[in-house]
Every structure is written in structure tokens, then in C-alpha cells.
Amino acid sequence: MKKTFTLLLISFSIVTQSLNAQLDLAFVSNFSGNSTNACNRLSWTIASNQSISSFEVEKSTNGKDFKTIAVLAATENFNTENYTYSDTAISADKIMYRLRVLIKRSQNDFYSRIIFVRSKTKLDDNIRIIENPVRDRLSFIYNSAEVQQAAIKIYSLTGKILVHQKINSFKGNNLITFPLSSGFGPGMYVLEINTDIISQTVKFIKQ
User: Fold this and answer.
1) Which of 75, 99, 118 is the last residue of a domain?
2) pLDDT at 22 over 80
3) 24-44, pLDDT tens digit by residue?
């Protein structure tokens, strides 16, 4: 019984040392992201590159649900290696990324830390006012990245909220119309659309 217990301890020690060694090999450093008007550019450094099989770049807009957007094969270089990836499918102004690192000849895989990137892409173009200036009703096309609820607000230039309503938007273009009551005098107003992902504003003129 004592010999069996000793063997179990030795086996556990070997497995632990092997796992720690793989963790060291999979160590990701300098994982960061920078936004441009065209893309979010990710970069990272890997130690002992020769032991890495591939990377999966994962993306999330809520920090919980991650989806794989790219798979990058590791280079054949030894020791330290630098990698980059450009995400051009930017549909939100706040995006989180992480890396899944796959080790050669191993069933284990490891995740990097999660990084946060605020997009510089102009998202206001997702709202298009129809026939601006408007008369007795406001009609606009709103492009939604997914099926989601959106809060619609219309402000006066003094900051007073004149309309506050929630809608269920579909993925893609949504045509939305609001009647403008007699409380809307001639002048300029601000239309705001808020979701859990982005906030967009655009101005329109009431004749």
C-alpha cells in the first residue's frame, strides 16, 4: 500500500511538472490591441515558439460569449516570436479579445488574458435620416449588428428628452418612423440610439 501511494505521488509530480512546463511554453506576453479607422490590430509575443501549434483569436462584445474569428498557424521559428492579427469586422465600439494557444503533441490548450479595445471606426454612419429636414414625422434607417433591443431618444439642443422609446431591432437595416408632435417646433434636434454595445447620435432639422 505504501509503495502504491509513493508511486501515485511520483506520477502526480511528473504530471504537474509537465503541465507547468507546457504553461511556460505557452506563455503569451505583450498581448495588446490598437484601433485604427480600418481595423483593430492585435499583437503578441510567444515564448518557445517551436512548441506552439496554432492560435485561435477569439472575440466578444460582452466579455462572456467569445467566438473564434481566426486561426493562425505558428511559424517554424525557434524561441521568441512576434505575431499580429487585424480584425476588420468591427461592428461595435467596445470589443474584447483573447487567444487560445494550442500546444504541439498535447491535448492541453491555454488562454491568454482578455484585452479590451475601443474602436475608432465611425459608427454614426449606421444611422441615415430619410428626407432631412423633416416635417411631421422622423424616418430613419438604422443598421444593427445583431438582433437586439435598442433605446431611441430624441433631444432638443438644450438637452431636454422629447422622445424615449425602446424597440426590438433586427440584424441589418431597420426602417423606423416616429411621428413628431406639435411639441416639436422648427429647429435642430439630436437622435440617439443606445444598445448594450454602442451609442450613436445624429442631428436632424425639423421644418
Assistant:
1) 118
2) no
3) 445 788 899 988 767 889 999
Domain count across the chain? 2
Of 86, 118, 150, which residue constitutes the final position of a domain? 118
- What is the pTM (predicted TM-score) of this model? 0.51
C-alpha cell read off for 206: 425639423
Which pLDDT score, from 0 to 100, does residue 21 have?
A: 42
HEC profile of 69-125: EEEEECCCCCCCEEEEEEECCCCCCEEEEEEEEEECCCCCEEECCCEEEECCCCCHH
How far apart CA 183 and CA 155 sit, in angstroms, is 12
Whole-angstrom distance, CA of residue 18 vs CA of residue 202 = 57
